[in-house]
Amino acid sequence: MAGRPREFDRELALEKARDAFWERGYEGVAMSDLVAALGIASARIYAAFGSKEQLFREAIELYVAGEGGFATRALVHEATARGAIERMLREAVLLYTRSGRPHGCMVVTAATNCSSQNDAVIVWLGEFRRARTKSIIDRLRLALKDGELKAGTDVAALGDVYATLLHGLSVQARDGVGKARLLAMIAPAMAALELAGQG
């Protein structure tokens, strides 16, 4: 008697897809790669997720809701902007340099350059990155309002500094710069915020 077909675990399949896209980028992962990584036929992948692009979007959302959500958690839970920014940078380094896992930020590295037929993916990821920049600026704006920063501090410029640094950490980690070196960068990076502080 033939055995029953193995039950499809959608969440596990999504986790495997996330890791494949994180490691090789959107265009670097072909449908044949997804079939191999997920261990299911392409027809089942299409039935479960609709398309490669939709699977990628869900994989990004899984990343952002989980380990990739470290910046949101830091900005929301820390009592001070200084604590939030420092924690965000530290946790970025720890995530982006983990042994045995893809290096860098999935949102930054998965689709920086794609063919024109995938413009929608590039635009969508750009929206994610701009939203992260806005969240940093919003946190600094709150710090200004609360008196943590000096009156007249250009919170947009300061926020852009830390967003650029956050995204740059991803590139450095992807290029093989080690955890210790990236962690050592945080102290001098905090100097701009300390200068803007009230003392």
TrEMBL record:
List keywords of the entry alphabetically: DNA-binding, Transcription, Transcription regulation
> Where, by residue number, does the polypeptide cross the bilayer?
none
Q: Which PANTHER family does the record cross-reference, listed alphabetically?
A: HTH-TYPE TRANSCRIPTIONAL REGULATOR YJDC, TRANSCRIPTIONAL REGULATORY PROTEIN
Does the entry feature the keyword DNA-binding, yes or no? yes
> Where does the HTH tetR-type domain start and stop, copy by copy?
7-67
* Protein origin, superkingdom: Bacteria
Gene3D superfamilies annotated for this entry? Homeodomain-like (1.10.10.60), Tetracycline Repressor, domain 2 (1.10.357.10)
What this protein is called in its record is: Transcriptional regulator, TetR family
